[in-house]
Design goal:
globular
């Protein structure tokens, strides 16, 4: 077990199976020293635990938890490309999309669910740049979708 997966286990978490693509793309792709993930939905065993807009059908706290699920799915996608998460040199960039009710402005707080998990798991290597964007709708009516860019040290 890698040190990263051991840290996840300490937190009571486990990497899921890689979420199969919903269309014509790969869950993650390596280019040089970087791995880029596709947008990761908060899928759990093939389905979304919640659907709808944050600030309407889904609370900000629920969406923050869903963003943490997106983080686990993103890490699983990265691992599928590099084999061992201990090869991650740095989390570089996170881009998150929050399906938002018209008056919801708490997108950064929702994305903290993703960022805080990466910080707990990777420590200083988990500090990253981030964008948090409110959108009208996401695939499958998901409340949140997040993509990740990591630098790899071979």
């Amino acid at each position: 077990m890698s040190a990263v997966e051991a840290k996840l286990a300490e937190l009571g978490l486990k990497l899921p199976e890689v979420v199969p693509p919903l269309a014509a793309y790969q869950p993650a792709v390596r280019s040089g020293s970087y791995v880029y993930t596709a947008g990761q939905l908060p899928m759990v065993k093939g389905s979304l635990p919640l659907t709808g807009k944050v600030g309407a059908e889904v609370s900000a706290e629920q969406a923050k938890e869903l963003a943490g699920i997106c983080a686990l799915n993103a890490l699983a996608a990265v691992k599928s490309v590099i084999g061992d998460l201990d090869k991650v040199a740095r989390i570089v960039k996170v881009v998150g999309f929050v399906a938002s009710a018209p008056d919801f402005t708490g997108q950064p707080g929702v994305l903290n669910g993703f960022s805080e998990l990466l910080g707990e798991v990777f420590g200083e290597k988990g500090v990253h740049a981030r964008s948090a964007v409110g959108v009208a709708v996401l695939p499958l009516d998901a409340p949140v979708e997040v993509e990740l860019q990591v630098e790899i040290a071979d």
